[in-house]
Design brief:
Elements lengths: L6 E5 L6 H12 L1 E4 L9 H6 L1 H25 L7 E4 L5 H9 L2 H15 L7 E6 L2 H11 L9 H17 L4 E6 L9 H11 L6 E5 L2
Parallel strand pairs: 1-3, 1-4, 2-3, 4-5, 5-6
Helix pairs in contact: 3-4, 3-5, 4-5, 4-7, 6-7
């Protein structure tokens, strides 16, 4: 069964499993996969060690890289795939920057974002992986990336709350809020099958909370 959308995004805060799920879905549904290139950001490791000094360059680098990636997508679509599936949406730039930047820095960042975001595609569906911060920390530790070792529970909670606030205030597209507390879509095939069934349905705009 096909997914009835042209552009689907899997979102979630750090460690939620969005890249893993995006890759699995893209494989099974012949989608063009668009993955966030976080490893290419030269300021990311510095930011986790010294967020005050490196917040602005890390956020600007992410914004410009995501902009370039999505602009290229508009001009060079793979005609042999059925739809586009990504592990981020561009508006996350606002969420993270608002959390990480000073008031003056965020005002400048938002001016840049507002200037370029209108040229970029918006997803037809967002699948948000809601995960409690304790589990996020365990999953972050499991993948053992050195630059992520200083991420705190409080930081993850703040980011997740920013996502939820954004979704409550912006309900122009369908948002599937998937509670993954008792879900393991990697090791449990039945969990993954449930997610596949969910994303093949058509939803009205707004938040749809999914409990397993």
């Amino acid at each position: 069964m096909k997914i009835p959308y042209n552009y689907v995004v899997v979102e979630g805060t750090i460690g939620a499993g969005k890249t893993t799920l995006s890759t699995m879905l893209a494989r099974d549904y012949n989608a063009e996969l668009v993955l966030e290139r976080f490893a290419d950001n030269p300021f990311l490791e510095k930011f986790y060690k010294d967020p005050v000094h490196y917040a602005f360059p890390v956020e600007m680098t992410f914004l410009m890289d995501r902009y370039q990636q999505l602009r290229n997508l508009l001009t060079a679509r793979d005609l042999f795939t059925d739809f586009v599936l990504g592990d981020y949406f561009i508006d996350k730039c606002l969420l993270f920057s608002k959390n990480n930047l000073s008031q003056d820095e965020f005002a400048l960042f938002k001016k840049v974002f507002d200037t370029i975001s209108g040229f970029l595609p918006k997803p037809d569906l967002i699948l948000y992986l809601y995960t409690n911060p304790d589990r996020l920390l365990k999953q972050i530790a499991k993948r053992n990336r050195d630059f992520e070792k200083d991420i705190t529970k409080e930081y993850l909670s703040d980011i997740q709350e920013k996502y939820l606030t954004y979704f409550r205030e912006n309900q122009q597209i369908p948002i599937l809020l998937l509670d993954t507390e008792n879900v393991d879509f990697v090791e449990n095939p039945s969990d993954y099958q449930k997610i596949k069934t969910l994303v093949t349905n058509h939803y009205e705009a707004g938040i749809h909370r999914i409990l397993f």
